[in-house]
Amino acid sequence: MIKIGIVGGTGYTGVELLRILATHPHAQLTAITSRKEDGVPVSQMYPSLRGRVDLCFSSPDKADLNQCDVVFFATPHGVAMAQAPELLANGVKVIDLAADFRMQDVAQFEKWYGMEHSCKDLLSEAVYGLPELNREQIKKARLIGNPGCYPTTMQLGFAPLLKAGLIDADRLIADCKSGVSGAGRKAEIGILFSETSDSFKAYGVAGHRHTPETIEQLQRISAEKVDLLFTPHLVPMIRGMHSTLYAQLKDSAMALTNEELQKLFEDAYRDEAFVDVMPFGSHPETRSTRASNILRIALHRPSNGRTVVILVVQDNLVKGASGQAVQCMNLMFGLDETTGLNHVPINP
Amino acid sequence: MIKIGIVGGTGYTGVELLRILATHPHAQLTAITSRKEDGVPVSQMYPSLRGRVDLCFSSPDKADLNQCDVVFFATPHGVAMAQAPELLANGVKVIDLAADFRMQDVAQFEKWYGMEHSCKDLLSEAVYGLPELNREQIKKARLIGNPGCYPTTMQLGFAPLLKAGLIDADRLIADCKSGVSGAGRKAEIGILFSETSDSFKAYGVAGHRHTPETIEQLQRISAEKVDLLFTPHLVPMIRGMHSTLYAQLKDSAMALTNEELQKLFEDAYRDEAFVDVMPFGSHPETRSTRASNILRIALHRPSNGRTVVILVVQDNLVKGASGQAVQCMNLMFGLDETTGLNHVPINP
Amino acid sequence: MIKIGIVGGTGYTGVELLRILATHPHAQLTAITSRKEDGVPVSQMYPSLRGRVDLCFSSPDKADLNQCDVVFFATPHGVAMAQAPELLANGVKVIDLAADFRMQDVAQFEKWYGMEHSCKDLLSEAVYGLPELNREQIKKARLIGNPGCYPTTMQLGFAPLLKAGLIDADRLIADCKSGVSGAGRKAEIGILFSETSDSFKAYGVAGHRHTPETIEQLQRISAEKVDLLFTPHLVPMIRGMHSTLYAQLKDSAMALTNEELQKLFEDAYRDEAFVDVMPFGSHPETRSTRASNILRIALHRPSNGRTVVILVVQDNLVKGASGQAVQCMNLMFGLDETTGLNHVPINP
Amino acid sequence: MIKIGIVGGTGYTGVELLRILATHPHAQLTAITSRKEDGVPVSQMYPSLRGRVDLCFSSPDKADLNQCDVVFFATPHGVAMAQAPELLANGVKVIDLAADFRMQDVAQFEKWYGMEHSCKDLLSEAVYGLPELNREQIKKARLIGNPGCYPTTMQLGFAPLLKAGLIDADRLIADCKSGVSGAGRKAEIGILFSETSDSFKAYGVAGHRHTPETIEQLQRISAEKVDLLFTPHLVPMIRGMHSTLYAQLKDSAMALTNEELQKLFEDAYRDEAFVDVMPFGSHPETRSTRASNILRIALHRPSNGRTVVILVVQDNLVKGASGQAVQCMNLMFGLDETTGLNHVPINP
After folding, report:
1. Interface touch B206/C237, C-beta < 8 Å
2. CB contact under 8 A, B193 and D238
3. Of C199, C207, C307, Cβ closest to residue B229
4. Interface of C with A in 229-248 (CB under 8 A)
5. Which residues are the active-site ones (chains A, B, C, D) (predicted)?
6. Contact state of C285 with B238 under an 8 Å Cβ cutoff
């Protein structure tokens, strides 16, 4: 059994880790910290876990995370970088669901997250936890920067085309839509039911933290300079993310048939348990991934055929966060990658 | 492996059966019928099942249900009664999720369902599939009438008090609220998004089919004449059911303390895997049961203490329908009752 | 023109007052206070009012409310009682949308609201602002305690039966359901979209502030001792309130026909512009009142006929709060009661 | 008073016309037809109109529409073209909310709507009913093709840039999102609450009828060849439309400052009562237009400044349909354009 610690288990990615790990056959939940909820049973705060998780939250001071095999950070940005060095020194693996170890470019990190990076030494060994693009490194990693929810969809959607050099790398447009749980479990007016229900809006159009993260990763697989216009929107639904990606085919690629385009994606993801390439022209719904680790992709090529429209859906809390983190953990501990992640999406 | 057939698998209870059975370790999905969708892959109609269910729908004429070990009917009322005799004669067990075998009182059935009962002979051996009240009979049954969603909450909520003879059996009030999926997957104006979202209403206040079903069952455990006022309401949510039950304590029971009341329920359900008696005074949310087979109960005794208010929540498609049916199947085939039903509720 | 001040205009009842008064032909918005938003244009906080309301919020210290003809308090409980004496002394009328002047029983107020009442002297002249039951007093009032949202539905639903002495006054049950906007515009986890959407729950079952308010008012019209069991619930919708009321007919009233029952209500509300008695057996939807000042009632008498079920719907922010307050204002200033309140409900 | 007929008043644009016209000071509702609901009071089908609209639906055969001053067609495509000639011959003006008279290009119409156009003669005099771009023609028109909901947002969003020749006219991208009411009031599985709530999807990505309509209109104001990639999506909300428009600045326009860009739009719409240009960088929410005829626009220019992102929101049933139709009617009858259209948006 893998002894598991969770730092900051009161948010949505924390409770989603608990949901997944509660039935993971090799997971032994050992400690879950929350300064504010010290001593409170997890199942009191989350009645959905009554009878399934017996732990109490404990103050970070009291929890002995050093005895864990792996610690997940489901915390605000900045927490993991402060605690990771000691844990790693004690032989504990670390998976950070926040942004501390996602970006190699410190300047970009500090600009977008408004804080100094206190743990630059570890960045070079930190591995970006997107298994479909980075599997071998994850297997050997001690320290994972788990991808952001939006970047997961953008990378898996653009990657096959970028790798093949078929599209203008500097004209990528991603029009993305997220459920409200992506904003976290915070006491803020802006995400109240009465403020978000029965309405729709864009936000952060001038710039969003997930842009530099995505560009950094896409640049690794593109021979040409990547540029990305990313527009996030808020959808009145709890879970779910839908990215509508627009890629301009190069003149030299205009002869590509739709069948060849489709095959490119099917080949890219043929062996992936958690990426489903749907038939050409499909319209995936976010609910077809609800509460599961699957991500679905469908291709379109409307109008004059110059623009490839890639539709990508996932559950932002699973493949977009906690499920992906467990997928990484499975790889890091030599387990089958799908262990504990076989949830069938909830429909309706 | 248990060879399983599903008749009428295109509705919500059908697809929920598929979701549950897809990861049930002893289930082998063998046939699923739909006259209209003959030849269509199940996963084409329900993309949430892509990669998880390989079957195609087949016309009832072609499907050889007689080779199954058990057949579930996820059909409109009246279908199971037509096909059950042949299946039973061939040694196939039958679990009907509709109303054909729920009520022993044929006159009541025919009045409320507006059809003649064509299979009265089998009624006497049909077992009402509520394991918490009927477990031993279910184990031996060949033919199950799976309870309605509302009746499950009303019975498990009132039963301990009625059995103990503490309340006026003829003054029961059940003010119940259901998510829209309870109305099924039908092309009807009244359950469109634009008709039901951001609104709330009662329906069927003058009389609802679940009243006679519930009274018949409650009468079996009550020494006194049962009468029930049942008011169903429609909530703008997909899944979930919340029943607010009002029971008047007899004068002779007014001395009962809240602790004794609480203990009565805890004792009644102590060994039940799928009934959770929450601390006295709790306010269970339907989402704490979402997509799982758990039903939660909480007790209140406001104001002058004469009325016990029992709050009961469940997922109407799981404990209120398909999960309960699989729970019955497990009992009928000698499996652990919880096999394949350990889903942790989805939150948020 | 009536010069109008609003204290605390940043909450939902405040912005709803603004929406209504923006097109009221006799209203002149003069001052709107918010300590926190001093100097901020109202339309910046509420873009829905761009081009419709030109005021800025001003700090309470700066706003000269004494020059107003009437001041509405859309504030937390306790604010109006502190400021009302000075305003009244300056000839300004006061309408409090909070609870400070709703209850004559100071002990009950202090018990349920957890604060000392600092303005007991004015209670005797304060008028409970429910026009349908209190019109003549409202016309002459200087100081109005505007009713709570739930109490409005419970009073208008039970009143005809209680006045006629037909029901057991001490066995009233009100099972009520409210949209989330009823909880106000507060930064609280419990009313986040991700916490309340796609779910349903009861709250405050052990006791709620609206119980003593309602009992005090109902007692005024009942010859017998009133007792009330009130169970509030939270519905995943923004606006709307649905009260399901259960009243037990006295033995002496069992001979009443349904037609007589219906006539009792139709007679009671025949001349009321904002109370709609629907045909016997109707199922009113909350959306049929959305964004309007109408309240609809429908009667049922199921099962053995002993219990009258009264369904009452309204928009909690209009007839349940700000619309009712404007209705009172119209009466206090000698205007037609419906002035500025002729909004047709929004459907769908 | 203007005598008004409505053909097909049972759908969402029909009932929205009724809501608006019920308080329009110059409107006299004279006839409303529905073959299926002949004789049924409008307020029985739509309780929101109880006490506000006294008409009954009448069969098209019985209704004497020729005595009306204007007839609105809130019908499926193809109905207006069959009845318009007779009405016009009798001096009745016609406003079609469907597509029959939107497009001058008959071949495109027949391709996208799958029917022959039976009334080609009238096309040349039909006026496209978008007042902000077409006001003078509307004033003189007898026959209006009222714009589609999506096209309204796309045209008003792209128009100032296209007119000024600042952007690549053949690389327009419109990523648009609509509430479910846009799909109409039809008994279809795909728009059930349980199918659309808590989910998000694109649809019609390969091609949508609103593309040729929009291109035809934009071409009229563009000196260069227009091409448009339009991707519609379905949002789990009742009303509201949000279009995210992407326009590529020409190299020659890259020197444009954001202030100049903003001024371009402010100048374009300065005198428009129903177009609100918000401050540069705003994020308009659909709810800020709910149930009103306002359309709001906000500009962004993220990243390298090459792409202008134009955010446009409206209520799809008002400015996107019935409100716009009444705006046209006002112009056609010499009324102030805003008559009867001063509804303040509903918030929350």
Report:
1. no
2. yes
3. C307
4. 236-238
5. 149
6. no
Contact C237 B199 (CB under 8 A): yes
Q: Which residue of B has its CA nearest to C195?
A: B348
Nearest-CA distance from A72 to chain C in Å?
Answer: 23
B185 vs D: CB within 8 A: yes
Please list the pLDDT of chain D residue by residue as tens digits (348 residues): 999 999 998 999 999 999 999 999 999 999 999 989 999 999 999 999 999 999 999 998 888 899 999 999 999 999 999 999 999 999 999 999 999 999 999 999 999 999 999 999 999 999 999 999 999 999 999 999 999 999 999 999 999 999 999 999 999 999 999 999 999 999 999 999 999 999 999 999 999 999 999 999 999 999 999 999 999 999 999 999 999 999 999 999 999 999 999 999 999 999 999 999 999 999 999 999 999 999 999 999 998 899 999 999 999 999 999 999 999 999 999 999 999 999 999 999
Which pLDDT tens digit goes with each residue over B1-32? 999 999 998 999 999 999 999 999 999 999 99
3-state SS string for chain C: CEEEEEECCCCHHHHHHHHHHCCCCCEEEEEEECCCCCCCEHHHHCHHHCCCCCCECECCCCCCHHHCCEEEECCCCCHHHHHHHHHHHCCCEEEECCCCCCCCCHHHHHHHHCCCCCCHHHHCCCEECCHHHHHHHHHHCCEEECCCHHHHHHHHHHHHHHHCCCECCCCEEEEEEEEHHHHCCCCCHHHEHHHHCCCCEECCCCCCCHHHHHHHHHHHHCCCCCCEEEEEEEECCCCCEEEEEEEEECHHHCCCCHHHHHHHHHHHHCCCCCEEECCCCCCCEHHHHCCCCCEEEEEECCCCCCEEEEEEEECCCHHHHHHHHHHHHHHHCCCCCCCCCCCCCCCC
Residues of B in contact with D192 (CB under 8 A): 180, 185-187, 191-193
| CATH of range A150-316; options 3.30.70.100, 3.30.10.20, 3.30.360.10, 2.60.40.420 | 3.30.360.10
C311 contact residues in B (CB cutoff 8 A) = 202, 205
pTM: 0.98
How far apart are alpha carbons A301 and D112 in whole angstroms?
18
* Domain D150-317 CATH (choose: 3.30.360.10, 3.90.190.20, 3.30.365.10, 3.10.310.10): 3.30.360.10
Domain coordinates of chain B in residue numbers? 2-125, 150-316
Query: B25 CA to chain C: closest CA distance, Å?
Result: 30
Q: Which CATH number is A2-125's, of 3.30.1050.10, 3.40.50.2300, 1.20.140.150, 3.40.50.720?
A: 3.40.50.720
Q: Tell me whether residue C56 is one of the annotated catalytic residues.
A: no
Q: What is the ipTM of this complex?
A: 0.97
Catalytic residues of A: 149
To the nearest whole Å, the CA of D122 is away from the closest chain A CA by 30
DSSP letters spanning D203-236 = --TT--THHHHHHHHHHHH-SS---EEEEEEEES
